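R.M. (postdoc): so does anyone remember the format we settled on? I'll just put the structure tokens first.
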């Protein structure tokens, strides 16, 4: 294959994204046509989705930081939900919650729509799936992100950041570890076991090479029955064995929960009550619900790293009139006019209302100023603060049924 002229991999460069070169060609047509027509009206656009890929009608906004960096320096004003905020949909009604509002002259930012939606759709998809898994697993189960091998490597740091932000306890990717300033985690692959003549040799080599404070988690389904290898691992590593990981392929699982319960029994009666049991391999929501009571944690890969994208749209809702004032205007199927979203966090009830509407007591605005005349207004929160805030919202979702009211 002939080498590319200016890069090694088929990925966009950061400066190409920032300069608006990563766009759809029709936006360049729009720019030319507006310029030739002598038009560049002031507009307001909103970013929203009407429907999620899940029955539950809530999602998690992510990618706001990237959009802020993208639009910094452009002559626009931006309001947005905070990174890690929960948004709602109401697919049976005309209501939708804008997660971002942008105001500026259309030709000055139109070409950035492609990248704006790309940032928000991908990141929010990963964060939403990770948050759903955290909610289903409960507060105490360990969730580890193992899925970056199933995604384009350029996205690995984003995937791990979104998973951790949404409640995962750790991740495996080392570049994400460096960028987030957090320690990566992981056990061992089957290929490592197969490099030795005997599983016990592999576990002992693993034990000898790890730092003293790293947990010893043995992979226990490579050659023999899970129960047999779990007992072998306990006999080999003794008190140093922190946990066992079952990565059983679907063709061998049978009644997987019963297999796990057998492993738990055999470990317990041999003095291994403190040995944790982790499972991995094709884990999604169904498996988490079925196995949460029987295991200590999950290694989750593809269902997070290849999570369904959130289908955000970016639509014009106001256009400058002949008098220079913004007037409500939208295409068929959209609600014209700029909108605000207000929430009562004690009930998780939201109001969607025209801009300038005064909410009842106890309601807070979700769309907050992010950029003014191209200048960022907010210091981005640290990942720990974002994570803590989202986990508190997930706690509310365990007991409350979120709802939305459209009011004009």
């Amino acid at each position: 294959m002939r080498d590319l002229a200016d890069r090694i991999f088929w990925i966009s460069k950061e400066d190409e994204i920032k300069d608006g070169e990563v766009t759809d060609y029709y936006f360049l047509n729009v720019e030319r046509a507006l310029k030739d027509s002598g038009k560049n009206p002031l507009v307001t656009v909103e970013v929203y989705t009407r429907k999620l890929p899940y029955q539950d009608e809530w999602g998690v906004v992510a990618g706001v930081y990237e959009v802020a960096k993208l639009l910094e320096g452009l002559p626009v004003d931006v309001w947005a939900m905070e990174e890690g905020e929960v948004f709602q949909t109401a697919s049976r009604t005309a209501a939708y919650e804008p997660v971002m509002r942008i105001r500026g002259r259309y030709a000055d930012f139109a070409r950035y729509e492609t990248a704006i939606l790309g940032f928000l759709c991908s990141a929010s998809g990963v964060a939403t799936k990770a948050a759903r898994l955290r909610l289903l697993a409960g507060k105490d189960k360990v969730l580890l992100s193992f899925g970056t091998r199933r995604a384009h490597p350029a996205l690995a740091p984003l995937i791990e950041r979104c998973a951790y932000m949404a409640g995962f306890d750790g991740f495996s990717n080392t570049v994400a570890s460096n960028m987030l300033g957090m320690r990566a985690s992981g056990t061992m692959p089957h290929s490592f076991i197969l490099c030795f003549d005997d599983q016990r040799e592999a576990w002992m080599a693993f034990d000898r090479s790890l730092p003293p404070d790293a947990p010893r988690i043995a992979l226990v389904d490579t050659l023999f029955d899970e129960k047999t290898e779990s007992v072998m691992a306990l006999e080999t590593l003794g008190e140093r064995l922190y946990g066992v990981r079952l990565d059983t392929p679907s063709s061998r699982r049978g009644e997987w929960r019963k297999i796990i319960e057998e492993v738990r029994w055999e470990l317990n009666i041999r003095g291994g009550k403190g040995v944790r049991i982790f499972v991995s391999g094709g884990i999604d929501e169904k498996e988490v619900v079925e196995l949460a009571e029987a295991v200590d944690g999950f290694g989750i890969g593809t269902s997070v790293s290849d999570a369904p994208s959130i289908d955000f749209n970016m639509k014009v809702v106001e256009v400058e009139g002949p008098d220079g004032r913004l007037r409500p205007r939208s295409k068929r199927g959209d609600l014209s006019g700029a909108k605000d979203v207000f929430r009562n966090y004690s009930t998780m009830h939201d109001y969607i209302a025209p801009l300038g509407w005064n909410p009842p007591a106890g309601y807070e605005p979700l769309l907050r100023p992010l950029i003014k005349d191209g200048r960022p207004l907010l210091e981005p929160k640290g990942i720990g603060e974002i994570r803590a805030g989202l986990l508190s919202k997930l706690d509310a979702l365990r007991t409350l049924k979120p709802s939305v009211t459209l009011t004009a």
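R.M.: ...and that's the designed sequence above, right after the tokens. Also worth knowing: Residues 18 and 69 are 8 Å apart (CA to CA). The mean pLDDT is 96.
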